[in-house]
Amino acid sequence: MKKYTLIDVFSGIGGFHSGFLSTGRFELLLATDFNKDCESFHRKNHPELPFEKIDLSQINEQEFWFNRGVKDVDVLIGGPPCQGFSTIGNRASSNSQKREKYDIRNNLIGHFINHVRVLEPKYFIMENVRGLTTYRKGDFFEDVMEEFNSISGYRISYKILNAADYGVPQIRYRTFVYGHRTELDKNPFPEPTHFEDGINGHKYKTVGQAINDLIGKENEIPNHIPLKHGEKNIARYKLIPEGERMPEDKLPPELYRKNFGNTFKRLHREKPSLTMVPGHNAFPIHPTENRSLTVREAARIQTFPDNYIFTGNRQAQCIQVGNAVPPVMAEKWANHVLKILDKYE
Fold first, then answer.
1. Is residue 82 flagged as an active site residue?
2. Which residue segment(s) compose the domain that 146 sits in?
3. Bigger pLDDT: 71 vs 222
4. Is the pLDDT of residue 85 over 60?
């Protein structure tokens, strides 16, 4: 069967392209990211794949791809951080009220849009945080979509998707903006395959299914090294029931503090996890152990295979894992895109 070309910009450690490559139908032309730990991860785990460490905010996209001889790209994917925006004045909105207009070109999202404009892929997908659509009362996202729609020849839309609906043992909502130069299918985004109520026997994957077998193997396999918590935090963890948050109103005075976040939420073995976010060296609490998840356990919940080795210090490893698109979800996107490309080739 025909293979299609793939480029991943702002790739992080490559969870997105990993899912695409697992189908056996894509050839990765290049993955890029500016983070040195992501580069180290690629060199260690996938030295056979083309990767460049480069600051994509400092390049001319036209020259960049011309100098590498890249053209006729089938699929472009990426997860640019939402940062570095500025305003360029006010304008009247549809309800005649003045609102700020944002200079999307100076944002990393704007650079992703420039890659679409230059490469003209048959299909593109941009992944970002859920809050992108409501940031600054939605004005920023409105300008993002306006900039995407300024590229001629594309049908462009967006959808907030939950990774748990696609076989990932994690409640993880992310915004996906996607577009293509083919006829629009009835279902422009991948259909869910798993359901909270277990429709057709496909229930949400759970934390227990992902990590129960790792209990007792701490420090025996790569990246499965528990944090050394202080006695006070351990005492707090012991008070958190499975699947619940810190019971602040029941804490003795010596254990009380302000601002107990998700790192003081214990996961439940029979439910999907909270969203894996990098945090400061800490993920949520293990369902049965009085400690936070290890990097390996978080990676399992993100659906990374055990043969992936995360590099750098612990915080760098947490960032690598927490920022990634879960490969299992990425594979669902890949199979969806393949149906469209195969149909219109």
1. yes
2. 4-197+324-344
3. 222
4. no
